[in-house]
Design brief:
The chain is an alpha/beta fold and 307 residues long. It contains 10 helices and 11 strands. Helices cover 40% and strands 23% of the residues. The chain is globular.
Amino acid sequence: MNFTLGQLRVFVKVVEKKSVTKASEELHMTQPAVSIQLKNFQEQFDIPLFEVVSRKLFITPFGHEIAESAQTILQQAEIIKHKSLAFRGELTGQLKISVVSTGKYVIPHFLTAFIKQHQGVELLMDVTNKTKVIESLEKNEIDLALVSIPPERLNVESLELMPNRLFLIGNKDFQGIKKIELNELSKHTFIYREKGSGTRQSMETFLRSREIKTERKMELTSNEAVKQAIISGLGLSIMPIIGLRHELKNGELTIIPAPDLPIETKWQLIWLKGKKHSPVVSSYLEYVKSSKKNIIEDKFSWYQEYI
C-alpha cells in the first residue's frame, strides 16, 4: 500500500462534502484531478470506499472508517510539520478569523503575504454574516473578527484597516442621474440583505433616521445575489462599494448620488478586550500595522475614486 498525503486529503474532503465537484472547489483543484486522486486511492483497497448510484456519491461503511483513519494521519502529519518548523525557530500555529461576508473582498489582501512568509501558520477562516461572527467572538472560538461596525454589547479592542463606504446603487438605467432626493426613494423597491447582516444594519439605520419607508422590498442572502438583482432591474440597494469594482467599471451598476450618502464605517479587526494572543496572532497584528498602508495603496487605489 503506497498512498500519499495528497490522496488522503482528497478522500477526506470528498467524504466531508459527499461530492467530487464540491471537494474540488474546496481544494482549489480541477474536478478531473480530484477524480484521478480518488481513483488511485481506491485502487489500493480490495473493498469499495464509495459507490455511485444514480449519479450520486455514497461512502461505504468501510470508506467512513478509512476516512477517520486518514484524518488522524493528516493531523499527525501537521503536528510533525509544526514541530519541525518550531525546532528551526519558525512561527507555527493557527490563526482563526471570522469575517463578515462583504469582508471577503478585503481580508485576503491583508493575509496573503503573511501566510506565504510563515509556512507553519494554519489559517482557519469563516466567512458568514455579522450575527454569527459576533457569536463566535463572544464564545472565544476565534482569535480575530473582521467587521465594519463593532458590536455594542461586547468589550473589544480593534485595529483599523481601511474605510468602508456604502452608496445607493442602481443598474445602468440610472446612469446620468445627477441626484435623487430622499423623499423619492420610497417609490422604489429596495433590496435588503438577510437579518443579521452588517450591511442591512447600516441600510436600515440610514433609512429609519431619515423616516424613509420602503414598502416594496426584497430580502436576499448574499451581496452577489443583491448585485444580480439590481443588475436585472429588480430594485435599488445601499451597498459597500468594496465588492462592486468590476460591475461599476463595466457599467452594469451605477452609483446614484443622494443626500447624506455615502455612509462611511471602518473595516477593522477586533478581539475580546484582555485576550492573550498567541505568538501567531501577535505577529499577524504587527504585520498588519506595519503593512496596511502599502497594501491599501497597492490593492485599493481604485477605491479613492469614490471618496
